[in-house]
Design a protein that fits this description.
single chain, alpha/beta, about 10% strand, globular, disordered N terminus, transmembrane helix, Phosphoglycerol transferase MdoB-like AlkP superfamily enzyme, LtaS-like, cell membrane
Length: about 650
């Protein structure tokens, strides 16, 4: 152990210890980056030996910012030009402060070794807000420790390294100098340190340099999703503390010019028949990615792939199916606004922004005005994910959760009521509602730790990933729901919509490991008494935010309304989809444009180039130019309307 009982000079050692300790934490952050890549390598198939040094060296810039922010109090208390900082009790306090703050920062990095698979991006401040709605955090955290014990072990080893670093490098005794000399010299050194600190957290020393943010990671990558290797989790959390404020966009100088490219205002078809009050039943299936469905994957395993959802495969034969269908987000809490209000989560989940107090478009409210009964079902503990609060905000009349189910014998112990039992509960409740009704259910069982009820052990194929067995279970639960519903008086007068909250948390096959595959989900429209609602459409794209305008069109809704999505049953002016994966992904027909908010970083013909190997950016201007205008129009409409509270049709 290195420390001094007698000190000479002006106490330079205190600054040496500070620099060495901070350098040690920088090294541990790099270790975390290596482990993050190792645990999530399948998400970054294009990272080569030539690219890796650029990613990891670029990450040092973001690590420096995170380390300085994490240690801001420790640095200040170490540098203040006073002599009491040499007292043993104060030094012990600084040691504990250094160990505690850096252990928390390393914990955040370690958590994303696994949590990244669930969100396809580094965790931000919104994650803490998201989990603040959970009242079973002890079970979730306990389950995480059990299932991912090796990550907890890695964190313990990292903390031990911090403790060793702290004990190995200590400050020692007060210098044998008059206090005024120490004050003078240390004041100068603190001034220099403050200058260096500001430059470090800002990302540079030029006057024109703006503080670096998440998008700056794009300088070091070939593809947007590789930004999450460059970034670290503490940096992402610190930089999103005030992320609920959007920047006003000014790509277009006039509203008319922008609306000519893309407009979220929808007008009714004057030639449409009268409104038809059919029931609307929407099922949002947890982690229901396209990879699980055999019909979507006839090319896999030399044409022998059957998938894990045989009931969905059979239902697709009687449904309207769009071959290219996408989620607008990668989190469960992004699905509800996307499906029920046609508001996608851009950069951050809409539920967690301050703009939820805007006047919102709402499919339930619009149908309620037409005499519909509205309800929402979620088998989790009431209040989970903030769903109860948000569904109340958008005017849904009745909420049914674990409390209303009122039978803990069917509780899975972590997430909620098993899907089979809760879907039967839903079916029985639908019998009691006066028609027409609109009802939405969000499933829970196909979620980590991927368990099925004991009575179903060994019944469903397991496959290469544990989630597949759970998908087979929920698919069977859905089959039983339809078996119980098909003879009900309301069944044939109903439009069913089946979709996912997001794609699977991680994928097995390469085409689902890309930034396009990560968002590929099924979206089915099934109307038992309507033969026109069948067949597969491979030309028109569909996304979650299209559900609301498409349902309204199918019902012949007769009023203008606001929707960021499009009506897939009509003739939309743009054949588009949008999501965010470190950059905006703007789909138009067979192409996807990746736009970082300022410039295009990728352009792919994704329907042919399924692994996104051939970047066409700058090579097909006749495609790239119009798509850039479209995504800019979307960004400006989205950001400015959020800021101005203009998310509805002005009377």
């Amino acid at each position: 152990m290195s420390s001094y009982s007698v000190a000479s000079g002006f106490g330079w050692r205190i600054h040496q210890v500070l620099l060495i300790r901070l350098l040690g934490i920088m090294i541990l952050f790099t270790v975390c980056r290596i482990l993050f890549y190792f645990f999530n390598q399948s998400f970054f198939p294009d990272v080569s030996l030539a690219l890796a040094p650029r990613l990891f060296l670029g990450g040092l810039r973001f690590d420096l910012v995170a380390v300085l922010y994490t240690n801001i109090l420790y640095v200040f208390l170490t540098l203040i030009p006073v002599t009491f900082k040499y007292r043993p009790a104060f030094q012990k306090f600084l040691d504990y402060l250094f160990i505690f703050t850096n252990s928390i920062a390393l914990l955040a990095n370690c958590a994303d070794f696994i949590y990244y698979r669930f969100t396809i991006k580094r965790s931000t401040w919104s994650v803490l807000q998201e989990f603040s709605h959970e009242n079973n955090m002890h079970k979730l955290f306990g389950g995480f420790l059990v299932n991912y014990w090796y990550v907890a072990l890695v964190w313990v080893l990292l903390v031990m390294a911090v403790v060793y670093l702290t004990r190995r490098w200590r400050i020692g005794a007060k210098p044998l100098r008059p206090a005024w000399q120490i004050f003078l010299v240390h004041s100068v050194l603190m001034t220099v340190a403050v200058f260096l600190f500001i430059g470090g957290v800002k990302g540079g020393f030029r006057h024109s340099t703006r503080p670096i943010t998440l998008s700056n990671a794009g300088e070091y990558v070939d593809k947007p999703k590789e930004m999450f290797i460059v970034l670290n989790t503490p940096f992402c959390i610190y930089k999103t503390l005030k992320s609920s404020d959007y920047q006003r966009a000014d790509f277009f100088k006039s509203e008319q010019e922008m609306n000519a490219v893309y407009s979220p205002i929808h007008h009714p078809d004057p030639n449409a028949p009268a409104f038809r009050p059919k029931n609307v039943v929407i099922l949002i299936w947890e982690s229901f990615g396209k990879e699980m469905v055999g019909t979507f994957n006839r090319d896999l395993e030399n044409g022998t792939y059957k998938g894990y959802t045989p009931f969905i495969d059979s239902l697709m034969q009687h449904s309207k199916v769009h071959w290219y269908s996408f989620a607008n987000g990668a989190k469960s809490i992004e699905a509800i606004p996307s499906v029920l209000t046609s508001i996608p989560g851009i950069m951050e989940p809409f539920i967690l922004t301050r703009y939820t107090d805007n006047k919102l478009p709402s499919l339930p409210e619009m149908l309620q005005a037409k005499g519909y009964h509205t309800s929402f079902f979620h088998g989790a503990p009431n209040g989970s994910m903030g769903f109860k609060a948000f569904t109340n905000l958008i005017g849904i009349k009745d909420y049914y959760g674990k409390t209303e189910y009122n039978n803990d014998a069917d509780y899975d112990g972590i997430w909620g009521i098993w899907d089979e039992e809760f879907l039967q509960f839903w079916s029985k409740k639908l019998d009691t509602f006066q028609q027409p009704f609109m009802s939405t259910l969000f499933t829970v069982s196909s979620h980590d730790p991927y368990k099925v009820p004991a009575r179903y052990q060994g019944k469903f194929p397991k496959g290469p990933l544990p989630i597949y067995e759970c998908m087979g279970y929920t698919d069977n639960a859905l089959r039983r729901f339809f078996e119980s519903a098909k003879n009900k008086p309301w069944f044939k007068n109903t439009l069913f919509v089946i979709t996912a909250d997001h794609a699977a948390t991680f994928a097995h096959y390469p085409k689902y490991q890309t930034s396009v595959g990560n968002f590929s989900i099924p979206i089915l429209f099934y109307a038992p008494d309507d033969d026109t609602m069948t067949g597969t459409d491979s030309s028109r794209l569909v996304q979650q935010i299209d559900v609301m305008p498409s349902v309204l069109s199918y019902l012949h809704y007769d009023k203008p309304y606001f929707s960021f999505g499009k009506n897939v049953f009509g003739n939309p002016p743009l054949n588009f989809a949008v999501n965010y994966d470190g950059a905006y992904q703007w789909f138009n027909g067979p192409y996807v444009l990746q736009f970082d908010g300022r410039k295009t970083v990728g352009l792919y013909k994704y329907q042919e180039d399924k692994l996104l190997k051939n970047n066409l950016a700058g090579r097909v201007p006749e495609v790239q130019g119009p798509m850039e205008l479209q995504v800019k129009a979307f960004i400006q409409q989205y950001s400015n309307r959020m800021l101005d509270d203009r998310l509805t049709v002005t009377p």
